[in-house]
């Protein structure tokens, strides 16, 4: 299996400048390749430019511009061209599927923050000084950069990437390793129901409160955004304001990730089988369609967009998608089974008699079956139904 590791780098002042120049030059290569593809398509002949054709040109580009392009790793430049090729492949795939196309765009230097090295030892070297107690990674054109390695890397390093987040630099490794030993069996199963009042409710009656990191940081973010709006473009104050806003957003993101990792780890350690709803989060957070007034052309009726915007913010703040992705990854490493089930009627079905009715849920938290009178917390009922649906689906799968 392939596992990723992300470590903070501690470059010197000179290395920081060199890393920034590396991102700038790779961004220039990306934009130049994109412009070539655009020009070729706009030509009357509508010539199609491929990755192979642009990769062949790299040798000449490096010879013509040795100061900016010739100093960096050839394989990393090929990886940048592959990134553009993947963007076009995704663009054409979305067109065929009837989705919003999203044509590849030019990247500004602040929006190009990653350089990939496809193979360790080709333009980069992880732990390049094995006799030095300080862990370092070497990049062509930059040198040996000190790394804060907070955990050991298991397996053979396959790829290395440089990533900039605000004013900090990270190295991201992918290592190939054997499948780890599964955790000891616990003999327990659980269903979970994701929500907004409580982040998670399980079929055993336990609840995980919703931390609402974004809402807690909203006041500071609002003040920082207002300060940014008052700054003159290109000024030093604006650069500081941008860095402050980015730091606040980064802190919220790290808090969400920390909460998701800890919650998922607890579930994986305690249960052999975990069932959850197969939520279509993108559809749930869509803005409502406008309602034209049939009597007055050009006028629209109220459609609840303000209330829906608040709900969408709460859904994004909960971070369900990130949590489910982490849960599946941890379960695979631990030898646990995770099952996604259809969420329809999970909160309206009575776990005792099976009666389905909208009236079974008179409020957000209360469940009261109109057929048999069963009463419980609505989220717990939903988790019970999710667990039962997951067990039915598991039994129905071919061996």
Strand order of the largest sheet: 2-6-7-1-5-4-3
Radius of gyration: 26 Å
Sheet/helix structural class: alpha+beta
Count up the helices.
11
Distance between the termini: 23 Å
| Extended strand count | 16
* Mean of pLDDT: 92
State the helical fraction.
40-55%
Sequence stretches where pLDDT stays below 50 over 5 or more residues: none
Strand content: 15-25%
Globally, the shape reads: globular
For the sheet with most strands, the description reads: 7 strands, antiparallel
Give the total of domains.
2
Order of helices and strands: EHHHHEEEEEEEEEHHHEHEEHHEEEH
Detailed description of the structure:
The chain is an alpha+beta fold. It has two domains: 2-176, no CATH class; 189-396, no CATH class. The chain is built from eleven helices and 16 strands. The chain has helices at 13-42, 51-56, 58-64, 74-97, 213-216, 218-230, 236-270, 281-284, 305-318, 320-334, 378-396; strands at 2-10, 114-117, 124-126, 136-139, 143-148, 156-165, 168-176, 189-194, 198-202, 207-209, 273-277, 291-292, 300-301, 337-341, 366-368, 375-377. The strands form four sheets. A seven-stranded antiparallel beta sheet has the order 2-6-7-1-5-4-3. The protein is globular, with a radius of gyration of 26 Å. The mean pLDDT is 92.
């Amino acid at each position: 299996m392939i596992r990723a590791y992300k470590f903070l780098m501690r470059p010197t002042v000179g290395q920081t400048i060199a890393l920034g120049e590396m991102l700038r030059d790779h961004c220039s290569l990306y934009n130049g390749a994109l412009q070539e593809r655009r020009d070729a398509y706009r030509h009357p002949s509508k010539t199609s430019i491929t990755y192979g054709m642009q990769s062949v040109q790299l040798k000449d580009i490096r010879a013509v511009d040795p100061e900016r392009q010739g100093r960096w790793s050839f394989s990393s430049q090929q990886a940048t061209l592959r990134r553009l090729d993947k963007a076009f492949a995704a663009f054409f795939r979305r067109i065929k599927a009837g989705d919003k196309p999203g044509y590849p765009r030019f990247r500004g230097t602040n929006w190009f923050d990653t350089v990939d090295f496809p193979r360790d030892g080709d333009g980069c070297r992880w732990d390049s000084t094995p006799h030095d107690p300080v862990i370092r990674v070497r990049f062509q054109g930059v040198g040996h950069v000190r790394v804060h390695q907070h955990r050991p890397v298991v397996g053979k390093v396959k790829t290395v990437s440089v990533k900039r987040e605000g004013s900090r630099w990270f190295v991201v490794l992918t290592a190939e390793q054997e499948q780890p030993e599964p955790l000891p069996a616990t003999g327990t199963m659980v269903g979970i129901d994701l929500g907004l009042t409580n982040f998670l409710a399980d079929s055993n009656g336990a609840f995980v409160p919703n931390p609402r990191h974004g809402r807690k940081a909203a006041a500071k973010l609002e003040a920082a955004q207002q300060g940014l709006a008052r700054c003159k473009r290109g000024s030093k104050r604006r650069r500081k304001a941008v860095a402050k806003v980015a730091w606040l957003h980064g802190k919220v993101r790290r808090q969400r990730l920390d909460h998701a990792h800890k919650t998922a780890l607890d579930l994986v350690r305690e249960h052999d089988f975990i069932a959850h709803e197969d939520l279509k989060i993108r559809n749930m957070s869509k803005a409502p369609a406008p309602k034209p007034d049939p009597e007055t052309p050009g006028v629209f009726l109220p459609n609840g967009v303000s209330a829906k915007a608040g709900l969408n913010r709460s859904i994004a703040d909960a971070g369900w998608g990130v949590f489910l992705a982490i849960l599946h990854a941890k379960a695979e490493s631990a030898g646990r089974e995770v099952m996604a089930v259809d969420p329809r009627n999970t909160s309206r079905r009575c776990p005792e008699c099976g009666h389905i009715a909208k009236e079974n849920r008179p409020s957000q938290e209360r469940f009261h079956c109109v057929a048999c009178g069963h009463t419980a917390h609505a989220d717990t009922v939903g988790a019970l139904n999710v667990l039962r649906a997951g067990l039915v689906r598991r039994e129905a799968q071919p061996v």
